[in-house]
């Protein structure tokens, strides 16, 4: 449909037309009118459909491509990207794991082990765990995928003495599963709350970029979460780098 | 202090040294050992202090500069940036306004009016407000500052018929104040919950960049929040672009 003329009145400035087209296309994608992988109508078709200029349509497509909704392929057309993940982070009450978040989005969660390292706790980390600085922590680093696409690089630290199995288990036991579930199974403890849980923006560095299959400098969410269990005992410290174009927080 | 040799053992890979230095410096900044505006020790001094190589120190300083903690000035040294804002977004219960968030961080909140525009509601926005598509909305756009530094470009939409004062008030009534408080005063309604409230990453475009005093392409948080009042009636739709290097979400 063409947009209401009202938005073009000169006495009241309007939401830019390209943004209206953008919002409408976003809605169509969300409702499945244009499903993931499908090709959207051509520029000229959209020009006719919306009753706006070619520059407006081009701008809307550019913005949606930059935001990870569309993917322009030279000579082939513009395609709808796989939907972003929507995971609800609940501060109080149950903590939702990445695996649960994927399931809620009808996506298959995967995990690929990158490294297991034993490190000496820094002063900050030691203070959270209630151990002496220098105490051994085990850090499990994994790439988490949704329907096979890398979404985050997760880095979870535990006190080694409390979770020795994380060092001795086979690699395959840390593959394609929930680490929350694994820890619960072996230690009887599950993360219940994450407080503080902060989210900043970081850029993909030379280590993270290839693992996440994004260019160096790609903007990422950097999440730091201090998880405690049902007894309010510190359980793990999670530091996650999440691909911005593949993720939406619902907070 | 020099880092424990344990972290250099060859049999167990360690958290990279530059990251340990980074974490330690971040801690010192957080504790006020190096207050905002102060110069941190020189590269050579840090090399001695941490007992690590110059490349390691340089990398740590680079990462902290990129993350907005430090600011290197050619020939003058490296300085601590003003702290990021930490605002608690609470999904249930009271909604914290930007002004309250600043106060909690001992920062002075400011607001500069960019525009007031009347637009026709898109299908999506109309569905939230429970009005017909095309119904007039008033969109108030302001730059929000903390201690004078632009932090976000806020874009709040209301149903014009319910909030006519937003069109008639003087510009100064929308300057350096909380729009939540203003709306409560004039309509008797306050935002109580924001659900959904999603956070994505976007890049600063040519409109937002100069207003936020960042380069075009700078990564921003893009937050979309659907606010309802105490009677669960839709009140406003907030779309905010927040400078990543000046903001931390605590969720």
TrEMBL record, chains A, B:
HTH gntR-type domain: residues covered: 15-83
UniProt cross-references to SUPFAM superfamilies, sorted A to Z: Chorismate lyase-like, Winged helix' DNA-binding domain
InterPro entries in alphabetical order: Bact_HTH_transcr_reg, Chorismate_lyase_/UTRA_dom_sf, Tscrpt_reg_HTH_GntR, UTRA, WH-like_DNA-bd_sf, WH_DNA-bd_sf
Keyword set includes RNA-binding: no
GO biological process, one term: negative regulation of DNA-templated transcription
UniProt keyword annotations, A-Z: DNA-binding, Transcription, Transcription regulation
Protein name: GntR family transcriptional regulator
Organism: Collinsella aerofaciens (strain ATCC 25986 / DSM 3979 / JCM 10188 / KCTC 3647 / NCTC 11838 / VPI 1003)
């Amino acid at each position: 449909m063409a947009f209401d003329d009202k938005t073009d009145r000169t006495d009241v400035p309007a939401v830019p037309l390209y943004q209206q087209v953008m919002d409408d296309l976003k809605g169509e994608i969300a409702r499945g009118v244009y499903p993931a992988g499908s090709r959207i109508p051509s520029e000229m078709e959209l020009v006719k459909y919306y009753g706006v200029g070619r520059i407006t349509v081009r701008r809307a497509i550019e913005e949606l491509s930059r935001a990870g909704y569309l993917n322009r392929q030279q000579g082939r057309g513009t395609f709808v990207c796989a939907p972003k993940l929507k995971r609800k982070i609940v501060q109080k009450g149950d903590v939702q794991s990445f695996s649960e978040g994927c399931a809620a989005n009808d996506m298959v969660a995967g995990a690929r082990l990158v490294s297991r390292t034993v490190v000496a706790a820094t002063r900050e980390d030691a203070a959270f765990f209630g151990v002496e600085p220098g105490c051994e922590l085990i850090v499990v680093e994994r790439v988490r995928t949704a329907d096979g696409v890398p979404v985050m690089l997760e880095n979870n630290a535990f006190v080694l003495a409390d979770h020795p199995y994380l060092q001795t288990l086979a690699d395959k036991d840390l593959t394609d599963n929930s680490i929350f579930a694994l820890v619960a199974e072996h230690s009887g403890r599950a993360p219940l709350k994450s407080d503080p849980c902060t989210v900043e923006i970081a850029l993909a560095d030379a280590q993270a970029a290839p693992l996440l299959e994004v260019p160096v400098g790609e903007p990422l969410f950097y999440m730091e979460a201090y998880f405690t269990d049902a007894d309010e005992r510190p359980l793990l410290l999670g530091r996650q780098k999440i691909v911005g174009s593949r993720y939406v927080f619902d907070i």
